[in-house]
Each structure stands twice: as structure tokens, then as C-alpha cells.
Design a protein that fits this description.
Blueprint lengths: L15 E4 L7 E5 L3 E8 L10 E9 L2 E6 L5 H10 L6 E8 L6 E16 L12 E7 L2 E5 L2
Antiparallel strand pairs: 1-6, 2-5, 3-4, 5-8, 6-7, 7-8, 7-9
């Protein structure tokens, strides 16, 4: 008798950890990690075919947006202050997706040369019962998937 096919489920998106050299973690949401390729349209005048060729152009990487509950840890604000003061400090980092046991990393997206582009204080509203969330937008120069 044939063995039944083993079902392979996708990984849940909530088992993730952010790695940054400044030691902050505990993010509730990470979005915008993407890579894009510009295309150059090209056609020679003597080309008998009636369409243009597509040639790979520049690589672009999306801004990575991080959200976390605000705490007494001011490392993100201090990093942003360095940039405001003219000291450009770039960090490499990684987003690790873990399996259901939360003990094994299954995928890692590595980014390089990140700069704090935008840092937002929490939205304040006395009529809600929500955690104060700060948002950091990182401009990154590369993003690679490492499947280990």
C-alpha cells in the first residue's frame, strides 16, 4: 500500500524575530520588505518584430516598516538622533521566520545598510484601550532571502 502524501502547510506569519545590532526586538508587525527590478524597454528601428524587448535595469528595495509597543528602550530614537546630528550610522539586520515550535528558523530575509528614514511616536487617544505603538521606517539598500 502506498504511503499517504505528507501535507506541507505554510508557516504562520506571527512567529518572527527581528535582528538588529542595537538590540531592540519585540516588534508586533513588520511590513514592506520587498525587492523590485526596473525594466528598460528597448527596440531597434530595424527590428521586424512589432514589440519592444525588456532589459533588466536597476534593483530597488522597499522601505521596511517596523511597529512595536512603546517601552523605556530608546535605542531607536537614539539611532534616529544620530542621523539628525549628522552622524550616519547604518546597520545590517535580518527578519527570521520561525516554525510552529518557535525554536527553528525556517527563512531569513537579510537587509543591508539600513537607515532610520522615519520614526513616529504613538498615536494618543484617551477614548481607546490600546497599546502605545511606535513606528520605524527603515530605508534599506538590499534585501536577500536566505533559506539556510
Amino acid at each position: 500500500m502506498a504511503e499517504p502524501a505528507r501535507r506541507i502547510d505554510p508557516f504562520p506569519a506571527f512567529n518572527f524575530v527581528l535582528e538588529l545590532p542595537i538590540g531592540v526586538s519585540g516588534f508586533s508587525e513588520i511590513t514592506g520588505a520587498n525587492a523590485e527590478q526596473d525594466l528598460i524597454e528597448y527596440r531597434e528601428g530595424a527590428d521586424p518584430v512589432g514589440w519592444v524587448s525588456k532589459i533588466p535595469g536597476l534593483n530597488k528595495f522597499g522601505d521596511v516598516t517596523l511597529k512595536r509597543g512603546y517601552t523605556v528602550n530608546k535605542a531607536l530614537w537614539e539611532w534616529r538622533e544620530q542621523l539628525i546630528d549628522g552622524e550616519v550610522v547604518r546597520y545590517d539586520g535580518a527578519i527570521h521566520l520561525r516554525d510552529e515550535t518557535r525554536s527553528n528558523v525556517v527563512l531569513t530575509w537579510k537587509f543591508e545598510n539600513a537607515l532610520p528614514k522615519k520614526l513616529s511616536a504613538p498615536a494618543f487617544n484617551a477614548k481607546t484601550n490600546e497599546v502605545a505603538v511606535e513606528e520605524l521606517v527603515l530605508a534599506v539598500e538590499s534585501l536577500k532571502l536566505d533559506t539556510q
